[in-house]
Amino acid sequence: MAKKSRPSTLSVYLYVPNIIGYVRILMNCYAFAICFKNKYLFSLLYFVSFVCDALDGWFARKLNQVSTFGAVLDMVTDKYLLVVRLISTTCLLVVLSQVYRLGLIFLSLLALDIACHWLQMYSTFLVGKSSHKDVKDSSSWLFKLYYRNRKFMGYCCVSCEVLYIILFLLANNPTENLIEMKTAADACILYDIAKKQ
């Protein structure tokens, strides 16, 4: 009887879904580095990274490359990348909290998002489940609908991210505000000079 071969540690790191996760991290780092310089490139990179989130799960199932490391990498990439302190939704919510006056709303959404995902991930591992998406034992009908119906989950996720991107694109650029302040200050100074003459 032939022994079933175990993948090496290196091969798990090189699973296609995990490579997609690494690319998402790099894309997000670059996107947030340029977010105020080029809003449209930022939005494109952010959205492509978001789409890759669906692709990594699809590739994991299709290529039979599902791993706990991949699940954690996916969640970390989505919510809070501690190494560089930049993450897709988390960073976008922080940016939105800075460009809108009611920033506390976005920070509250951020806290809720992190707390919910952390609690869900931690509680599923405590009861021995391999995925935070395993909700067979849940008593919440909304939770079951969200995780069991991929179309509903996709609609919720895409709608939320598109809303955040639109809010970012509609926000005034802080550098534009600085230019407007400088222009207004110059006008005041020119008025004072003209008045004194």
UniProtKB/TrEMBL annotation:
InterPro entries: CDP-OH_P_trans, CDP-OH_PTrfase_TM_dom, CDP_ALCOHOL_P_TRANSF_CS, CDP_diag_ino_3_P_euk. It is found in: Membrane. Its cofactor is Mn(2+); Mg(2+). The keyword Glycoprotein does not apply. Its EC number is 2.7.8.11. It is a multi-pass membrane protein. The keyword Membrane applies. Its main location: membrane. GO terms for cellular component: Golgi apparatus; membrane. The chain crosses the membrane at residues 12-34, 40-59, 80-99, 105-127, 152-171. It comes from the Eukaryota. Coiled coil: none annotated. One of its GO terms (biological process) is phosphatidylinositol biosynthetic process. It catalyses: a CDP-1,2-diacyl-sn-glycerol + myo-inositol = a 1,2-diacyl-sn-glycero-3-phospho-(1D-myo-inositol) + CMP + H(+). Keywords: Lipid biosynthesis, Lipid metabolism, Magnesium, Manganese, Membrane, Metal-binding, Phospholipid biosynthesis, Phospholipid metabolism, Transferase, Transmembrane, Transmembrane helix. GO terms for molecular function: CDP-diacylglycerol-inositol 3-phosphatidyltransferase activity; metal ion binding. Belongs to the CDP-alcohol phosphatidyltransferase class-I family. This is CDP-diacylglycerol--inositol 3-phosphatidyltransferase. It comes from Salvia splendens (Scarlet sage). The lineage of its organism: Eukaryota, Viridiplantae, Streptophyta, Embryophyta, Tracheophyta.
